[in-house]
């Protein structure tokens, strides 16, 4: 068959625009570089990112460094971002969901990679998303060292995209937070969430948009200044600095990142089977978005508890919650003693409220 260089189908005809991808990489390379520290040897552009533990740790001198990794996504929060055209906050969520998980082992975040898959690549959208990822890495104090942009026509509709993230951190084995010493009598300090974070948006959207008929650009509460979209897109809080501040003043026995499943679904993951966490509801405030969801559903209290974080994004198990909370408050972080651990009676639930 004769070769024809001037005609025939192209990759672009199949829905993949290589030139658009190249333009996006050029636009986001600076966003990644601004997060780099001494450990990054090679980031975007190669087939693999290079990171030096020796350079990153410097004089810290960990005797037995343990790498801690985590991966997560943003879920259906992306539906809200796509519907509103606000794409520069879900990248923060992506970093937070991964980094907050590895923090629970006591790890210091080192670097982060992202995956961006879409039906048709729009460089402006991709750049906005990565701008958020870069900002999330800045807040997490880790480096954005690479990622993947995939244009997948036929898998995603035009305008749709999905995100996944991958975080790696390090902790000395002697400093691992593993919950082994958790016992009855320990206390609980809660650290505030910024709202829904990045879990259970499916129920939130169903109640607020489908069932109650609110519009994304309308007020969450009658006469209020916060729109539904703003409440749903509020970025997930990153707890890197909070955990570091806490570790300076107390031994952290266990840490729970409160994500999908709420407190009842996440706090028991770091507790021994013979203890119960007693939570005192009056010790913290519930963000308005949760009250609105419960009201408009209506959604029962028990369902809210097992679905949303209900205002606490992180719970630490410590000896003295008052001292821990005071130290966090001095850094500008809202925190408070929110309960304690007691012995468990039979097979009763491991989280109870009073």
Structure description:
The chain is of the alpha+beta class and 354 residues long. The chain is 33% helix and 23% strand. The protein contains 12 helices and 12 strands. The protein has helices at residues 18-33, 53-57, 77-84, 90-103, 123-140, 201-211, 228-233, 240-249, 262-266, 288-296, 301-305, 321-329, and strands at 40-42, 50-51, 65-73, 108-118, 143-151, 161-172, 187-192, 254-257, 275-279, 312-318, 335-343, 351-353. The strands form 3 sheets. The chain has a 6-stranded mixed β-sheet. A 4-stranded mixed β-sheet has the order 3-6-4-5, with helices on one face. Helix 1 runs parallel beside helix 5 (123-140).
How are the elements arranged and paired?
Layout: H1 18-33, E1 40-42, E2 50-51, H2 53-57, E3 65-73, H3 77-84, H4 90-103, E4 108-118, H5 123-140, E5 143-151, E6 161-172, E7 187-192, H6 201-211, H7 228-233, H8 240-249, E8 254-257, H9 262-266, E9 275-279, H10 288-296, H11 301-305, E10 312-318, H12 321-329, E11 335-343, E12 351-353
Parallel strand pairs: 4-5, 9-12
Antiparallel strand pairs: 1-2, 3-6, 4-6, 7-10, 7-11, 8-10, 9-11
Please give the radius of gyration in angstroms.
22 Å
Shape: globular
Helix content: 25-40%
Number of helices: 12
The H/E string reads HEEHEHHEHEEEHHHEHEHHEHEE
* Major sheet size, sense and barrel closure: 6 strands, mixed
Mean of residue pLDDT values: 92
Uncertain residue segments: none
Spatial strand arrangement across the major sheet: 8-10-7-11-9-12
Instruction: Please report the total strand number as a whole number.
Output: 12
- Determine the strand fraction and express it as a percent band: 15-25%
Distance between the termini: 79 Å
Structural class: alpha+beta
């Amino acid at each position: 068959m004769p070769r024809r260089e001037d005609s025939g189908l192209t990759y672009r005809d199949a829905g993949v625009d290589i030139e658009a991808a190249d333009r996006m990489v050029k636009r986001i390379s600076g966003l990644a570089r601004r997060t780099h520290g001494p450990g990054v040897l090679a980031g975007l552009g190669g087939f693999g990112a290079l990171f030096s533990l020796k350079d990153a740790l410097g004089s810290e001198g960990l005797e037995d460094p343990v790498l801690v990794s985590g991966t997560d996504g943003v879920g259906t929060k992306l539906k809200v971002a796509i519907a509103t055209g606000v794409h520069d906050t879900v990248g923060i969520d992506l970093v937070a969901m991964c980094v907050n998980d590895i923090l629970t082992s006591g790890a210091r975040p080192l670097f982060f990679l992202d995956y961006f898959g879409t039906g048709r690549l729009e460089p402006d959208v991709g750049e906005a998303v990565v701008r958020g990822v870069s900002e999330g890495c800045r807040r997490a104090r880790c480096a954005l060292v690479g990622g993947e942009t995939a244009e997948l026509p036929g898998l995603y509709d035009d305008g749709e995209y999905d995100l996944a993230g991958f975080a790696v951190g390090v902790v000395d084995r002697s400093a691992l937070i593993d919950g082994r010493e958790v016992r009855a009598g320990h206390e609980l300090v809660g650290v505030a969430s910024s709202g829904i974070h990045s879990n259970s948006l499916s129920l939130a959207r169903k109640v607020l948009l489908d069932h109650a008929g609110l519009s994304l650009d309308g007020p969450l509460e009658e006469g209020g200044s916060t729109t539904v979209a703003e409440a749903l897109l509020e970025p997930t809080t990153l707890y890197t600095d909070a955990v570091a501040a806490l570790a300076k003043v107390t031994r952290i026995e266990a840490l729970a990142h409160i994500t999908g499943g709420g407190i009842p679904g996440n706090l028991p993951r770091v507790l021994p089977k013979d203890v119960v966490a007693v939570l005192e509801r009056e010790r913290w405030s519930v963000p308005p978005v949760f009250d609105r969801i419960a009201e408009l559903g209506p959604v029962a209290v028990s369902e809210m508890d097992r679905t949303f974080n209900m205002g606490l994004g992180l719970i630490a198990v410590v000896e003295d919650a008052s001292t821990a909370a005071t130290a966090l408050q001095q850094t500008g972080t809202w925190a408070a003693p929110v309960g304690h651990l007691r012995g468990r009676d039979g097979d009763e639930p491991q989280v109870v409220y009073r």
